[in-house]
Write a structure and sequence with these properties.
The complex is a heterodimer. By secondary structure, chain A is an alpha/beta fold. Chain A is 39% helix and 21% strand. Chain A has helices at residues 7-14, 43-53, 87-94, 126-136, 141-155, 170-181, 200-215, 227-233, 251-262, 265-268, 282-295, 316-375, 379-383, 494-505, 530-540, 556-564, 576-584, 586-589, 594-603; strands at residues 20-34, 39-40, 58-72, 76-80, 102-107, 112-115, 188-192, 219-223, 236-241, 244-250, 389-395, 399-401, 408-418, 422-428, 446-455, 460-468, 474-484. Chain B has one domain (35-276). Helices cover 70% and strands 1% of the residues of chain B. The chains are: A alpha/beta, B mainly alpha.
């Protein structure tokens, strides 16, 4: 017994002749565990992080503490130990998945790990997984293609080989994984309880395959709780307990020792051959340990007080106290962290609120600069205080083409009004009060392209929008739309209609700057009654500059004044009636061309 | 104990250490068939469960283009509105799709394949490579659709269209570099995967997918130069240059695009390789 508990001597005698496949040299693996449970393992990259945090919330949990062994080709080695003793960690370290914190593992070739839960690519079919596995192991594509059938046969999946791997049962998946991983000879194969899931027939087959691999100078290491199957497949067994290698020797010796230690194989090993009477779990552990730790000299880990050299029941008291203290410390850390997190998230919320407030403030600062401009030219608006403000009232085209005088057409009106309670539009040959004579009433404050009928019977139609606020104050604005009849019917108007056409055919974009009050001034004229238009403007508090256009038609001077407002269009008119139209469209088109109107004025007889 | 190990390690390599870069890349090249196969199988497996299958590859960017086209057609005006709005937009959306695909699935290249990583010892760089290859495969029908759409919208066909292939290759190299970086970061900091949609959104808006950056930022020359240096903008602008008759990319974009690709691939490979030993830790 003492003999096999000194693994160094034992292994040294075993691997004299054959080549070493794996050498584990004093391997320590520490999991760094945050109090939150998140794991950080790697030493090198953590140095920065740890120094930054001062290592306060990192807990070091030793998973392996000074494991050393040498495994040679042609061996098959079993690994036993109860759950959580570090077997799987050792295997993962041997595949290079976990870098050791101290010590090193050397291998002739990168070992392949067959874990129970390695699912490869679950979405793909078994066949595809075989191919991918073979390619990943370094086979050529042709070679891989050639071996797919062989592996599929070995796994005995039949037609399931074409089904996605996620549909497999755990036994099927384990079989396939074993088949893939064992396809390559000359490899170091680590089997992590994978054989336990296969059925009896497959187990026999896989044991045979393991023997073949071993014979072809491979190395097989198997973790298993089934001491029976270990006895069949392995001639050497490592016993890992609490991260330490406490026994390393011939299968029968170590297994017997292990079984004797556990005394209760039913608790861990399902397929155990010998299952003696069950006892309480704790007592044998303590006793077994006691006996073992005497002989267990091979490790000098400073943290030994924590675990492996367990003492019998007397020593249980201080250990329990220490554990409680550790637990309390961990809890304390967790609490501190959660407080810190709460503070941090509170700060983050505050910052977000502050940012929102700043953005809000900025936008409210930015907006008035625009508002001031628009508010400034209308001191009258503040005088009449509550009167609705017609910010814009435009038509899509200053003129409408009519086939005949009987025809009906449509025009599109757009407006934007502030402070209105009710809005109505009306039509007539002069400005009307649209709320009294509505074409349509109860309209929204702002609308784009409202369709209204246009009767071709009249030469021009004046559309009025009237807004009334809660106090009953009304404001009106108008646009005038002219009719354009075909050339042959209206001889004197030929020129007008043709010259009028370009702007009418080009509705252009929705005007980019209709928000300023000055656009409303365009609508402020009606052809015959300049006085009306003047009132409209003043009550509307808009575009006082346009008032000058409120002159009667038929004088060329009208054009000149229209130009002076700067917002007029370039539509030329020889008659004053149309002139009003031209002005009214000014807001819509905004393509001012003063010289054009001046010309028109000059054309007038 | 230690004394025992010393003579025995002759001829063995230490595990859990990253290999030399040169040998690493050589090994990756040797196993390239694995990456290609993984990409192909992944692509097919991702399409099979959908009834429309491969159609989704083109439907997704197409529907995006329709949505953006409809909305921004009404919103955009002035100098920011590009000349051939529809063509401008679809080239932008389709090319950007390549980037978002690589960026998003690149971040899951390692974390989404942890079982594979833990089972086999292939060079991990093959996983981001396979992601980019898969996305490139997805781009093939998208690019064909792009050509057809451009013809439909009356874009004159020209020899310069062929330049889109090298452009996509260079962009693929750039995307691989990005995928390598995010793949490594997201192994240890999963939060990156939450950030990716946000980064995508930001890049979407500043890369001028649906508006003309030159027009919109004409008054801010410094800002415009910065935007011209954004890699996604560069690739999109260059692609538009060769595909659209009425668009020419700034010279800066032609220089910056390959420069970005070079910087990202070199930086990405080294950055990824340095953590090679630790990718198995992700679970």
């Amino acid at each position: 017994m003492t003999d096999l508990l000194i693994p160094g001597r034992k292994t040294a005698t075993i691997d004299r002749a054959p080549r070493a496949m794996i050498v584990a040299d004093d391997v320590h693996i520490n999991y760094k565990v945050y109090a939150s449970g998140k794991r950080m393992t790697t030493r090198e990259t953590l140095t920065s992080l740890r120094s930054f945090r001062g290592g306060r919330d990192l807990q070091t949990v030793p998973a392996l503490r000074g494991v050393s062994f040498t495994a040679s080709e042609g061996e098959s080695i079993g690994v036993v130990g109860h759950n959580g003793s570090g077997k799987s960690t050792l295997f993962r370290a041997m595949t290079g998945l976990i870098p050791p914190s101290e010590g090193a593992i050397y291998a002739r070739e990168r070992p392949v790990l067959l874990g129970v839960n390695a699912a490869l690519v679950p979405e793909l079919s078994g066949e595809n997984n075989i191919r991918l596995g073979l390619l990943a192991m370094g086979f050529d594509p042709e070679e891989a293609a050639a071996r797919v059938d062989e592996i599929a046969d070995f796994a005995e999946l039949n037609d399931f080989i074409y089904h996605p791997m996620k549909t497999y049962s755990s036994g099927m998946a384990a079989r396939l994984k074993f088949a893939i991983a064992s396809a390559k000879a000359h490899s170091i194969l680590l089997v992590d309880e994978a054989l336990a899931v296969g059925d009896r027939r497959f187990r026999a087959k896989s044991e045979k395959r393991i023997n073949e691999l071993r014979d072809s100078a491979g190395l097989v290491m198997i973790v298993s709780h089934s001491v029976g199957s270990l006895k069949e497949t392995c001639e050497r067994v490592l016993w890992v307990h609490k991260g330490e290698l406490i026994a390393d020797g011939p299968t029968d010796d170590v297994i017997d020792e292990y079984v004797a230690w556990t005394r209760n194989p039913g608790a861990n090993a399902v397929g155990a051959a010998s299952a003696p009477k069950p006892q309480t779990r704790n007592a044998p552990v303590a006793v077994g340990f006691d006996g073992l730790s005497d002989a267990d000299e091979h490790q000098g880990a400073p943290g030994a007080a924590q675990g492996a050299t367990a003492l019998p029941a007397i020593a249980d008291e201080p250990r329990a106290v220490a554990r409680r203290q550790r637990h309390r410390r961990a809890e304390e850390r967790t609490r501190k962290r959660s407080v810190l997190l709460m503070v941090l998230s509170g700060v983050a919320v505050l910052l977000a609120v502050a940012a929102g407030a700043i953005i809000g403030a900025l936008s409210s600062v930015a907006a008035p600069s625009g508002l001031e401009q628009s508010a400034e030219p209308s001191p009258s608006a503040s005088a009449t205080a509550a009167a609705p403000v017609i910010k814009s009232f435009t038509v899509n085209a200053p003129s409408v083409e009519c086939a005949t005088e009987e025809a009906e057409a449509k025009v599109l009106l757009s407006w934007q009004i502030d402070g209105a309670d009710s809005v109505a539009i009306g039509s007539g040959d002069a400005q009307v009060d649209a709320i009294d004579l509505p074409l349509a009433a109860a309209l929204p404050d702002a609308i784009t392209d409202r369709e209204v009928p246009f009767s071709c019977a009249a030469e021009t139609v004046v559309y009025t929008v009237t807004a009334e606020n809660a106090a009953g104050t009304r404001t009106s604005a108008t646009v005038t739309v002219a009719r354009v009849l075909p050339v042959e019917t209206e001889e004197p108007r030929d020129r007008d209609s043709t010259t009028n056409r370009p702007p009418s055919q080009q509705p252009t974009e929705p005007q980019p700057q209709p928000l300023t009050d000055s656009t409303a001034d365009a609508s402020a004229t009606s052809d015959s009654t300049g006085g009306v238009d003047g009132t409209a403007d003043s009550t509307g508090g808009v575009g006082g500059t346009a008032d000058s256009t409120g002159t009667t038609d038929s004088t060329g001077g009208v054009d000149g004044t229209a130009d002076s407002t700067g917002s007029s269009t370039g539509t030329t008119d020889s008659t004053g009636g149309v002139d009003g139209t031209a002005d009214s469209t000014a807001g819509a088109t905004t393509t001012a061309d003063s010289s054009g109107t001046a010309d028109a004025g000059g054309v007038l007889p | 104990m230690g004394a025992m190990a010393v003579p025995a390690t002759a001829g063995l390599t230490e595990l859990g250490k990253r290999p030399q870069l040169r040998g690493y890349l050589a090994e990756a090249w040797r196993l390239r068939a694995f990456a290609l196969r993984l990409a192909g199988s992944r692509l097919i497996a991702s399409l099979l469960p959908n009834r429309l299958g491969v159609l989704w590859i083109v439907l997704k960017p197409l529907s995006l283009a329709i949505i953006y086209g409809t909305i921004f057609h009404f919103v955009l005006a002035g100098p920011a509105r590009p000349a051939n709005f529809v063509q401008f937009l679809i080239v932008g959306v389709f090319v950007f799709e390549f980037f978002t695909g690589c960026f998003g699935s690149g971040s899951k290249a390692i974390t989404g394949n942890s079982k594979l990583v833990q089972s086999f010892g292939f060079p991990r760089i093959l996983l981001p490579v396979s992601v980019v290859v898969e996305q490139a495969m997805r781009m093939i029908p998208v690019v064909l659709l792009l050509g057809i759409l451009l013809l439909i919208f009356g874009e004159p066909i020209s020899w310069s269209w062929l330049l889109i292939i090298p452009i996509f290759l260079v962009m693929g190299v750039f995307n691989l570099g990005v995928a390598l970086v995010v793949a490594r970061i997201s192994v240890r900091t999963r939060d990156v995967q939450q950030l990716i949609p946000i980064i995508n959104r930001v890049l979407f808006y500043i890369s001028g997918i649906f508006f003309n950056v030159d027009g919109a930022l004409a008054d801010y020359p410094t800002l415009m130069t910065i935007v011209h240096l954004i890699p996604t903008y560069d690739f999109i602008a260059v692609a538009r240059d060769v595909l659209l008759a009425g668009y020419s990319a700034p010279l800066l974009a032609w220089i910056a695009a390959p420069a970005w690709a070079l910087v990202m691939i070199v930086g990405g490979v080294i950055f990824f390789w340095r953590a090679e030993a630790r990718y198995g830790l992700s679970d």
